[in-house]
Each structure stands twice: as structure tokens, then as C-alpha cells.
């Protein structure tokens, strides 16, 4: 990472930026770092200053304890201050939940775009989330980082055979390294249900985007975000999944952030 800023609790937050113009901060989801979302800078940097950063507990950023979602909001506040005092936010998956929470917290955010935040629209989703939280907490407390990663991959719907294949892959040690941050994303998602009252308090335009061939529940959750915030817009990208192509998403974000 090229630079760092210091959050309110003294945690060093590493980031890099490219391009010039209004600032756009990219917020990664679970099991990822700033490098995961950095490819989006390519289609955006000709119009915006695009900032990607390592969320606390991963990459080059620090990890001051104890963790709280409020600390991650403060991390974004420090980043916004470092890049000029105002920014638009883009968040993918649970990173989208963090971006929405930052806007609801009153940070100087002018727009928020999110991609497939995995909120549950119905009460049944809260039960699955509670079971995941319990098992994740236990695995991390016992130092079973590999098991924690497996739990997350199962939550995403990955097939068992693929999970076991991933465990034998060269990328697995890196996943275990940042496994403790799974608890942070779990905290950001709360009980897993769509936080209707919190979303209704957001006073800036929100773009909620989903992949056209993603599971139906994901499209429904994304549409619900757009319908719950006062200034929400829903978009579906034909042929895209949760692993959205930057070249497809980038122009959509550029149009929204440039409005």
C-alpha cells in the first residue's frame, strides 16, 4: 500500500489511490483486502480519485482490539479526511453493509453504491446467521482458522468438494491468515436481517446493484436495499454473478458517481 492514515483509536489503515477528481473509496467484503477491489480503479480513475484500503485486521492495516463496528466506521472517517473531507463509497457484499452503516452514521459521504449485500429479507435468515455466528466464534476462539474459513465458504453456498479442493490450494494459507476478520464482517452484518430503520435514515443517494444470474434471494435483498433507503436505485447486471467483472460494473458506478 502506498500510504496510511491513523484511525481514531490509533490503528494504522493502509491505502492506495489512483486518478484525480472526486474521491471514491472502495470497501472490500469478507476474506478480502484492498487488492481485491483495486481492479475497479481502472475503469474509474479517469474521472475519480479511487481509493482502495485494507480494512483493519487484514493486509497492511493494523488490528487494535477490542473490535467494534464503530471502529471500522471511524476508519472510513479517517480515510475520508485523508482524501479531502468528502467521498463516495462503494462496498461489495459485507463491505456494502459497512458502507451503508458509515452513511447512516453521518459521515461526509455524498453517495453510496453497493453490490449484493447479503441481507436476509425474512426472519428465517436470522436463524442461519445466528448458527453461523456461534460456530464461527467457537472455531476462532479455539484457533481453528481453517475450520472458520470452511464455515464461511459453506455460508456462501460453495459445494463441499470445492471447499476441500480450496483447502489444498496455494491460496489457503492466506485465507487462514485473515480468518479472524471473518468475525468483523459477521459483526457488520448484525443479525443478518435487512436493517430497515437504519437504511431508512440514510440521506444520500444509494445505488444497489446485483448480478443478473445471482441467486434469486440475492437479487431480492439488493432490491430491498434500494426500496428501503429514501433515495435508492436498483440495477441488475446481465450475466453477472457475485464475482462481478470490474469492466462491467465500472461504467455503472462511474455514471452514478458522476451524476
TrEMBL record:
Source domain of life: Bacteria
Residue span(s) of domain AB hydrolase-1: 24-223
InterPro entries per UniProt: AB_hydrolase_1, AB_hydrolase_fold, Carboxylesterase_BioH
A Pfam family that the UniProt record links to this protein: Abhydrolase_6
GO terms for MF: hydrolase activity
KW Secreted (keyword) present: no
The keyword Hydrolase appears for this protein: yes
The entry's keywords: Hydrolase
Entry protein name: Alpha/beta fold hydrolase
The organism of origin for this protein: Streptomyces sp. R11
Amino acid at each position: 500500500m502506498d500510504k496510511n492514515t491513523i484511525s481514531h483509536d490509533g490503528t494504522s489503515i493502509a491505502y492506495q489511490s489512483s486518478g484525480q477528481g472526486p474521491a471514491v473509496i472502495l470497501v472490500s467484503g469478507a476474506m478480502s483486502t484492498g487488492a481485491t477491489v483495486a481492479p475497479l480503479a481502472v475503469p474509474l480513475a479517469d474521472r475519480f480519485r479511487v481509493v482502495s484500503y485494507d480494512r483493519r485486521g487484514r493486509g497492511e492495516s493494523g488490528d487494535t482490539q477490542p473490535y467494534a463496528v464503530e471502529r471500522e466506521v471511524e476508519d472510513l472517517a479517517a480515510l475520508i479526511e485523508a482524501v479531502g473531507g468528502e467521498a463516495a463509497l462503494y462496498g461489495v457484499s459485507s463491505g456494502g453493509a459497512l458502507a451503508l452503516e458509515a452513511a447512516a452514521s453521518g459521515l461526509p459521504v455524498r453517495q453510496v453504491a453497493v453490490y449484493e449485500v447479503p441481507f436476509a429479507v425474512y426472519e428465517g435468515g436470522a436463524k442461519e446467521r445466528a448458527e453461523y455466528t456461534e460456530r464461527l466464534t467457537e472455531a476462532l476462539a479455539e484457533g481453528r482458522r481453517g475450520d472458520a474459513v470452511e464455515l464461511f465458504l459453506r455460508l456462501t453456498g460453495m459445494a463441499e468438494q470445492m471447499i476441500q479442493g480450496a483447502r489444498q490450494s496455494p491460496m489457503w494459507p492466506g485465507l487462514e491468515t485473515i480468518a479472524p476478520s471473518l468475525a468483523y464482517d459477521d459483526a457488520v452484518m448484525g443479525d443478518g436481517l435487512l436493517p430497515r430503520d437504519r437504511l431508512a435514515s440514510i440521506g444520500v443517494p444509494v445505488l444497489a446493484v446485483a448480478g443478473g444470474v445471482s441467486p434469486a434471494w440475492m437479487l431480492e435483498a439488493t432490491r430491498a436495499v434500494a426500496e428501503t433507503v429514501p433515495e435508492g436505485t436498483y440495477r441488475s447486471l446481465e450475466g453477472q454473478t457475485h464475482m462481478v467483472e470490474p469492466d462491467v460494473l465500472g461504467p455503472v458506478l462511474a455514471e452514478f458517481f458522476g451524476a
